[in-house]
């Protein structure tokens, strides 16, 4: 796709961190945030196959007011000359000043359509989706689900696992809708396992990942698990403790730490290491799936 020139495979960087080293654990960072300056990390891997499938049609997708997925879709639309529509959760936001994330989407040419939260929860129901498309004047649009997670996206993320074969025993990443983990686990070698750190409360993600793998591959693939303890109150929530942790990590390792996903995953890995969850001589790869909004 002209206009999208990814850096693949993304770089792998070993870091020295005493919180891991004293337990005999090696930490490496899989810098998916460096794949593309605007389609960052798993957003490139999930969006690229869907953009090819859209074949020039308007792309309509869904997200919350701080959605990285909406930002990436809007940027892709600008770079490729594709019209984009973002269906945003929260009708009460319509008419209010846009936050920095939605401001970026609008600047990239995305047309924003706000819907109430009840309708948003039913957006995958055929009748509700048809009504949303009519209201957004996008009946012929190519629809990408929330977070970009569908069977095309899952197969796109399988390459992430393949790039990490032979480089780590455990591969960890933050999870929103679960599509990246579903593909990553399928691409890893049989002696590797994937660990997901959900950033939303609820404990529902395991079933969603299983369904995504069923859709993409016909059944469960790879060895994967979730640890639901590190959401810090839920999506788009942070705390003073998490911010202090992220700032410390940035200062020690020169890595800009995105707060809503990446910080929670890194915090979880430190906590798990201190709990003895990883045997000595284990190499843990942390997938850096996003970057702070600039």
Q: What do these coordinates show?
A:
By secondary structure, the protein is of the alpha/beta class. It has two domains: 12-40 and 152-287, Rossmann fold; 58-140, Rossmann fold. It has helices spanning 18-21, 42-54, 68-80, 100-107, 117-121, 126-135, 151-163, 179-187, 205-217, 240-253, 262-274; strands spanning 12-15, 26-30, 59-63, 84-89, 111-115, 142-144, 170-175, 193-198, 224-226, 283-287. Helix 2 (42-54) packs across helix 7 and helix 8 crosses helix 9. The longest helix is centred in the last third of the chain and has 14 residues, at 240-253. The radius of gyration is 19 Å and the shape is globular. The model has no long low-confidence stretch (mean pLDDT 94).
List keywords for this structure.
294 residues; alpha/beta; Rossmann fold; 2 domains; 6-stranded mixed β-sheet; 4-stranded parallel β-sheet; 11 helices; 10 strands; 39% helix; globular
Question: What's a quick, concise take on this entry?
Answer:
The protein is of the alpha/beta class and 294 residues long. It is built from 11 helices and 10 strands.
Strand composition percent = 15-25%
- The low-pLDDT segments are none
User: What is the tally of helical segments?
Assistant: 11
What does the largest sheet look like? Answer: 6 strands, mixed
Widest beta sheet: strand line-up: 1-2-10-7-8-9
- Overall residue-averaged pLDDT value: 94
